[in-house]
Amino acid sequence: MIPEIIILAMIAAFLGMRLYSVLGRRAEHEEEMVANRFERPEDAAPPQAQAVPQAEAPRVENLTGGFAPAIERGLRDIAAADRTFQLLPFLEGARGAYRMVLEAFWRGDREELRQLCDDDVYASFDAAIAEREAAGHVLDNRLIRIEDSTIHSAMLDGRTARISVRFVSDIASLTRDKDGTMIAGSLDDAVESRDVWTFTRNVNATGPDWLLDETDVG
Q1: I need a surface site. Which of 65, 71, 103, 110 has the fewest CB within 10 A?
Q2: Which residues does 88 contact at the CB level (< 8 Å), separation at least 6?
Q3: CA distances (Å), 53 to each of 46, 50, 56, 57, 60, in order?
């Protein structure tokens, strides 16, 4: 009887040791897995922060090139309200419009003037053309060169951008009668002309076109 009890005890002890060895190793393995899951090794790279997209800010061109404070403020207001506005392309367009309007006026092209000018300026040009036609006069003027074009003033009036440009140009003027006889001027002698033209545009408009809103001697 005693030998049987001893044998049973030895079997129980053996089974207990086997069970402990299996469960103990499993528990240690699970603890290692938990530690690896939540604890970052010291030599591991820190997680990269994901960039948060930001709303694109209105692009305002650097307009601090020696302008008076009032002009600079006006240009910045226009650029903030109109994301398509850029100073250099505007000046290039203004120079082109200056040439186109003068040449259209000289040849009496009312249709082109209507597209380039607002109602008041167009009415003035139309009246001058009508007076010239009634007198039988024909202009043979030439824009020799635009020597300079600079911003004279700029402002945002509500939703309307207003920019005045001072043009310094050389113009040769010649007037002929209905028979083609020269009655005034000369194409050989260009005269310096100084003009201040104001262009306007609704900043909410879908098109890029500016209209000639005012002309003055500058």
Answers
A1: 65
A2: none
A3: 21, 9, 9, 12, 20
C-alpha span between 62 and 86 (Å, rounded): 10
Which residues sit opposite 83 in a β-bridge?
Answer: none
| Residue 24, token pair as written in the block | 């103990």
Q: The whole model's pTM is what? A: 0.71
Tokens of 171: 């113009």
Q: How many CB atoms lie within 10 A of CB 133?
A: 12
Residue 165: Cβ-neighbour burial (10 angstroms; 0-12, 13-18, 19+): buried
Please state, in angstroms and rounded to a whole number, the distance separating the CA atoms of residues 214 and 101: 12
Asked if 148 and 193 count as a contact pair (C-beta separation under 8 A), the reply is: no
Tokens for 178? 């209905």
- Total number of residues shown for the chain: 218
pLDDT of residue 94: 97
Which domains does the chain carry? 66-217 (3.10.450.240)
Question: pLDDT tens-digit profile of 132-191?
Answer: 999 999 999 999 999 999 999 999 999 999 999 999 999 999 999 988 899 999 888 899
- Minimal CA–CA distance to 108: which of 85, 91, 93, 125? 125
Distance, C-alpha 35 to centroid of its chain: 54
Place of tokens 């997680």: 47
Confidence of residue 18 (pLDDT cuts 50, 70, 90): very low
